[in-house]
Structure prediction request, 155 residues.
Amino acid sequence: MPTAESLRDLRFENLSQAVAETESLLETGYERRGKWTLGQACRHLRVVQDCSIDGYPWYFGLFAFMRPFVRPFLLPRIMAGNSPIGVPTTSIFVPGEDADDATEASLYKESVARLENHTAPFHPHPGFGRLNHADMLRVYTTHAAHHLRFLEPRT
Prediction:
């Protein structure tokens, strides 16, 4: 398992920069420093962020009682771009081996456009609860940087 120090320091100001990074990785190629390919990372990012518009599975609400404990501890860390490494995600967010890089990067780009153009309130985040538009976009921007830093561009 790579450490934060062994990965590139990747930060985005917005999700458009994350999309540009996926397109750059498609163009240059990349070396994996983690478990997932570009296609798998893009699928994961897309599926996670689409839930904020389409809704999370009903059973995610069973953990809502934990939000007052999780939010003050983890949200500031996420917002600062310091996501923990090696924390497993729920199985519905784990991408399959069949994730094609170009296809998933294109679908991620569409998901980002949809997210950026969404004007209604977002569904409450499973761990953080209800977030305003700017904070939700910031969570997903740092989430993208977290996963894409495991892919080292070829030069």
About this structure: The first strand starts at residue 30 and ends at 32. The helical segments are 15-28, 38-54, 67-79, 101-117, 133-148. The beta strands are 30-32, 151-153.
